[in-house]
What we know:
Largest sheet: 4 strands, antiparallel
Number of strands: 15
Distance between the termini: 14 Å
Helix content: under 10%
Amino acid sequence: MKKIINNIALLALGLGASINLNAQVTTDPPEYQDPTTELKIIVDISKFDASLEHVQNLQADAAAGQDLYIWTWSPAEHQDPHPLVNGVGTAPWKESNEALKMTKEAENIYTFTLTPTEFYEVDAQTVFANDLSFLVKPKDGGGYGDPDRKSTDVTIPIDPPVTKRDPAFLFPGRFVDTDLVMLYYDNKEESEPGMQNLPADGAWFFAQATLSDSTTVSIAPNAFQVGNFPQLQLDFYGDGIFKKYFVPRDFFNVPAGKSITKVTLYIQKRIFVGGGSRITYDVVANLGCD
Length: 290
């Protein structure tokens, strides 16, 4: 019930804009970095995996007019008799707290607004360290011998603001290999002379993943062959901005039974000729786990 699956599909761009990813969950504001301020969580229950019985049950209950509730455990979980405890009574999973009832905004769209430090009664650093995890359920979530009625678990990553970024970075800062991530590159901020003023088709990248068995997987075998793999070209968005969206597990075609523990990328020119043909640092992400 409380395993964090981290199946959020929201990906804010990190620069004051967002994209529509057909998301299960979005937030307002889309890029949220101050847990002492208000956050509106927006859930579209029609986007959860309807092949799962517990999701089918949730969707059927909502269609029948039942209220939905948030059930949350991270960055902290309140215990009875706290007024914001998830469930009440002797069978709390069957009796969600009325204080946690979500607002129905439209068909399938439900919201809940909170200020994380106040709601969870923790400091901002605890929110940054643990993120915000929850699921959605009707008042009676089943269980105790009855079929569960709930969404899959969701984690909203909450990272502190970065005052100075490298020109190339991955967003969000923390993710697992089934998340949609973005490689972002601002060529206007590039300090390597040989990589400055790239044309619209000029930004490519080398990509390597380290797997849970310590083996590595690369899209191109080396920097000299990157240009032979169209999936390694970044898309140009104008004004020196390049981006690439990908799901690491799919992108690296990770075999079943293995997971990605680290992603290493760097931006380069399509034709690599050594020094000056790539940025001077690697973009590295150490991944969490499902």
